[in-house]
Task: structure prediction
Amino acid sequence: MKKCLNCMEDYPEEPGLVCPCCGFDNEMAEQEGACLLPGSILQGRYIVGRVQKLRDEDAIYIGWDALFERKVRIQEYLPAAYAEREEAGSLTCKEENQAAYQAGLEQFYRRSRELIRLYQEEDVITYYACFLANGTAYAIMDHREEKTLKLWLEGKQIGQEDGLYLLQAARQAVEKVHRIGGYHGQIDADAFWMTSKGHMILKDFGGWSLADDKDDREETEGSRQEPDGISQDARGLAGLFLQIVSGKEIQNEEELEAELAQGSLQLSEPVLEVMRKALSYGLNSLEPLQGLDPDREISSGRTAASSRIRKKWLPWIIGVAACILVLAAFGFMIRI
Result:
């Protein structure tokens, strides 16, 4: 038996047979651009499968950890603007790009190591390991089969209150990253899994080109300063909320105002005020977003659906319990 490079399930070794689980013909597995060749092995234990997500700064593959015999996600620092893949698998870049490439590489490696500290958090993807190899860096993470929030939202109409519950669940996960000095960098509806139990899990960290310190960036006259990680995440959370309630990707204030003018988006003024500020990178903390929490009792990772079900059925549950107690008491009196 061999591992399917598309789903990492076992499949027969006979040539010409496709994977019985996902239908992929492994004889057709090809290298995508500068990505690793499917079937490559890292650290003598991680089998690299096909690319699941390719972004400007990195690539995310499905993989297999032969030591612990489990599926994993493998994230590789792979800036498309700088890197080229050699036949042996190593990444190289031109001399004039070395400084930028190295800065992003060091940031990727450092932040991946920091995220390992969050292994006990249920709403943040579990990082198992990170290491340097092939002239770049890799992070090994938990693999899940759940739908992304983007897929979960398809066909659903979410109002402001329910959208705010989802926003708070996302915010709580992001805040845990901020507490250890990190940030996400690329928050959108595809950056979360939605589990079958209604919990959101933050994944697919990015933004490696952002500087860590505001003082390290120079602002030229008449230009806007590059946002820091927290402002970037606040803007991402605002965009996420607006996508949840509108079904559209709203990237800036102009697009938000256009939706409001068309009457296709109905939001309260306090919510709009925070959204406008966040979209313009005007928030240096997530506290204004926390202030929009419609229910301060929301627990970490709880979604709108579970919270509203609790509110809807709690009076009925109390009533049924009271009836049971009355009937039990009546039956006891009859026996006496």
